[in-house]
Amino acid sequence: MAKLQKSIDKRNALVKATIELVNNNGFHATPMSKIAKMAKVSPATIYLYFENKQDLVNQTYIDVKAEYTKYAFANYDPTMPIKEGFEMIWKRIADFKLKECEYAMFLAQCDNTPMIDEESRQEGIKHLQPLLDLWERGKKEGVIKPISDYILYAYAINPLSFLMMTQKSGAFTLDKTHLEEAYQSAWSSIKMCK
């Protein structure tokens, strides 16, 4: 059991180092040697857990996406009314992005660059299925605009990454009023006008 835990700890250290280095230096300026050094393992140890750098980054992306969506959907009930369900998910996503800034920054980098392969990107999208299902139900009920899920995500969720980055840089501090205004803007951008 101790050997298994030591193995899990090493893999987690590699994932943590990858997140930190990619966030600070970018994907291309993060060699395996730096990841190993930060994780306090030998470079050869990486290859016990990952095939190569691409596999390491892809697996890290999937791990972080799973944590993100587990948090986002923790209290969500798929039978909730559309607006109530969206508000709960949106506010949980906002909370995650502000509390788990390193994870959120890593996901933002991955979502905005071609560093994640398509198979891993599709795996990451599967983690968002409850939100996609809510939007689909909302479209059928005439509550959500009948547009692409990518456009819905771009208008409703992606602005949170911008707000997180401006807060992290110290340019703007999000308080409860700002978060409520951001939520209302997100909802307004995707709801059908009545």
Tell me the CATH superfamily of the largest domain. Answer: Tetracycline Repressor, domain 2
Query: How many individual helices?
Result: 11
DSSP strand tally? 0
Per CATH, which architecture of the largest domain? Orthogonal Bundle
Rg (CA only): 18 Å
Helical content stands at: over 70%
Distance between the termini: 59 Å
Average pLDDT works out at 92
| Domains (count) | 2
* Poorly predicted residue ranges: none
CATH class of the largest domain: Mainly Alpha
CATH topology type of the largest domain: Tetracycline Repressor, domain 2
Structural class: mainly alpha
Structural shape: elongated
Q: Largest sheet, if any?
A: none
Strand content: under 5%
Summarize the structure.
The chain has 194 residues and is mainly α. Helices cover 74% and strands 0% of the residues. The longest helix has 24 residues.
